[in-house]
Specification:
Number of domains of chain A: 1
Strand content of chain A: 5-15%
Strand content of chain B: under 5%
Strand order of the largest sheet of chain A: 6-5-7-1-10-11-4-12
Low-confidence stretches of chain B: none
CATH architecture of chain A: 3-Layer(aba) Sandwich
Structural class of chain B: mainly alpha
Low-confidence stretches of chain A: none
Radius of gyration of chain A: 20 Å
Shape of chain B: flat
Shape of chain A: globular
Order of helices and strands of chain B: EHH
Mean pLDDT of chain A: 96
Order of helices and strands of chain A: HEHEEHHHHEHHEHEHEEEHHEEEHHE
Oligomer: heterodimer
Number of helices of chain B: 2
Chain lengths: 406, 83
């Protein structure tokens, strides 16, 4: 066991919304070729059969309106355009055509190839430069939010491949229920009651004790009362606060402002970073639920099926056995025990590459805090875990940045 | 003693706050509302909001959806009444 793992008392996961790896981090390939981002030459054909090349023109807001389609049939087109479809290797050539389907607007459809320029995202880019970037962290399903988030909570979506409500099936328990049953502490921190949770809402009804607000998260960090495992949800909507004032959405879901998400991410990081005891004993994972219909160049790999089959009504009639992953998303593991500039190889490295997905979250938390635990899906049991990235060396304080928030 | 580097985070534009954005533009929140309706149905009648129906029609806004979600979340998370 590494010294970093030995010191680890808390894991915090922050899951943002609907942005692909290349869209957010692709630009960093130019300064660190080990990051599997963009060369600048990647392109998709538009509906005039003209190449729509990636461009560093992504804007914080107002660009991806309408919200790009990321339901299963649309993602299938994004992945397999120009191929016979699964089990062929995804071409990653259908993102522009898929976005065109929504408004039949060629100019708008090409914006799906836009990515953020260097330092336009000072928080995410600073974290990527300073800690561990995963070249191969994929959404669990080539589909929308709710089913993907379910994998982070349960290690399965119970056969769901859409945004529809679903119910937990025995014998599987959420990671929070497992933690409590093992005598560990855990919280799911939602932003506030008006944003609430995107977790399968029956947990909200049946396990209310695991929920707390983001304000409580900040208090718990300050007072040193953070539980063993925390999952943080951003603000999903623009809404007024309880006492007035404006609370802008911070989830980065199009068309919410990406900068608001940067501020929120910095706030979560600072809350841990500014408590010295917490900082040296906590690992923070920042990840995204799925790609939101936005371009990425890495074909998602296959995975261990979880034993369920999707409803054909949700997949456009295509059989789907949860045996391949969704599009790649940004993921960064943060701790002073991680060497600066760590890049975790993905599918680009045939010898050493590792494919992570959201089932890696309950797999990691269960493995570290609970130990042997049988009642989980084969998919979760086979998922990669990430705490081996903690090293024996704790970086000095002056080597780990903090963020200045106005 | 050397200090850790501090990265300044720009403040987003005030105009990014748009609670009157059409709810139909964000299927995630629209579906969240539907999920919360399933839970609200199990609440005692006196705790039900009456805010759901307008949300599934045209013209509903993100801010209205948030108000509905706030209501149901608070009812679900309130401490249980003692018998």
């Amino acid at each position: 066991m590494s010294a970093g793992l030995d010191a680890l008392k808390h894991v915090v996961v922050l899951m943002m919304e609907n942005r692909s790896f290349d869209h957010m981090l692709g630009v960093l390939h130019a300064e660190n070729p080990r990051i599997n981002g963009l060369t600048g030459n990647e392109a998709n054909p538009d509906t005039n059969n003209e190449p729509a090349q990636v461009q560093p023109n992504a804007a914080f807001q107002g660009e991806l309106d309408p919200d790009p389609d990321h339901h299963f049939p649309a993602v299938n087109k994004q992945l397999f355009f120009g191929t016979p479809g699964p089990p062929a290797v995804p071409s990653m050539k259908g993102f522009v055509q898929s976005y065109w389907d929504q408004e039949h607007n060629v100019k708008q459809s090409r914006k799906i190839m836009y990515y953020f320029a260097a330092d336009k995202l000072p928080v995410l880019h600073t974290l990527a430069r300073n800690y561990a970037v995963f070249n191969g962290w994929f959404a669990s399903i080539p589909g929308p939010t709710v089913c993907n988030r379910a994998f982070a909570h349960y290690g399965t979506s119970f056969g769901q491949a859409s945004l529809n409500i679903f119910y937990v099936l025995e014998p599987y328990k959420s990671i929070y229920e497992r933690m409590l049953a093992a005598g560990r502490t855990t919280k799911l921190y939602y932003f506030d009651p008006a944003s609430s949770t995107q977790e399968v809402v029956n947990l909200l009804k049946n396990q209310p004790q695991i929920f707390a607000t983001y304000g409580q998260f900040l208090e718990d960090c300050k007072s040193g009362n953070l539980p063993d495992y925390s999952f943080v949800e951003p603000n999903y909507s623009d809404h007024p606060g309880e006492d007035g004032g404006e609370l802008p959405a911070s989830d980065q879901h199009p068309d919410h402002d990406v900068q608001q998400g940067e501020v929120f991410m910095a706030s979560v990081y600072n809350a841990i970073r500014q408590n010295p005891d917490l900082w040296k004993s906590t690992a923070l994972l920042v990840t995204y639920d799925e790609h939101g219909g936005i371009y990425d160049h890495v074909p998602p790999p296959s995975c261990t099926p979880d034993g369920f089959h999707a409803n054909l009504a949700d997949t456009g009639g295509m059989p789907f056995a949860f045996d391949r992953l969704g599009v790649r998303v940004p993921s960064i593991l943060i701790s002073p025990w991680i060497a600066k500039g760590t890049v975790v190889p993905g599918p680009e490295d045939a010898a050493n590459g590792r494919a992570f997905e959201h089932a890696s979250i309950p797999a990691t938390i269960t493995g570290h805090f609970i130990g042997a635990y049988e009642q989980r899906t084969v998919r979760e049991k086979g998922a990669q875990t990430f705490l081996d990235l903690l090293t024996d060396t704790m970086r000095p304080d002056e080597d780990c940045p903090s963020f200045g928030l106005d | 003693m050397a200090q850790p580097p501090v990265i300044r985070v720009p403040k987003p534009a005030r105009s990014s706050y748009q609670p009157h954005r059409q709810l139909s533009k964000n299927t995630l929140i629209l579906n969240q509302v539907k999920h919360f309706r399933e839970l609200e149905k199990d609440l005692p009648l006196e705790d039900q909001s009456g805010l759901f129906e307008p949300l599934i029609g045209e013209g509903a806004t993100e801010g209205q959806a948030a108000e509905y979600i706030r209501h149901v979340t608070k009812k679900l998370l309130r401490p249980a009444k003692k018998e």
